[in-house]
Amino acid sequence: MLFFILTTIGKFLTKDEERDRALIARIKARDASALSELYDNYNRLLFGLILSILKKREEAEDTLQEVFTKIWEKAEQFDLERGTVYTWIVSLTRNKSIDRLRSKVYKEQKKQSTSLDDEDVFHPLYSDESDPLENTILTERAKIVRDALNKISEKQRKVLQVAYFNGMSQSEISEEFDIPLGTVKTRMRDGMMKLREFLAQDIEL
Amino acid sequence: MSNENNRFTELCAGHVLNALSEIDEQEFQRLLSQADAEQLQLLDEMRTAASELATLTSGETPSPTVKQKIMQVAKESASKKSSYATIYKMTWYRLAAAAAVLFVFTSIGLVMYSTGLQEEVQNKETLISQQQSTIERLETEVQRKEELLTILEARNVDLVMMDGLAEMSPNGYGKVVWDKKGGNALLQVANIPSVPIDKDYQLWFIVNGQPISAGVFAVDDPESDNFFKIEQLQSSADEGAFAITMEPKGGVPQPTGDMYLLGNM
Question: A179 at the B interface (CB within 8 A)?
Answer without folding.
Answer: no
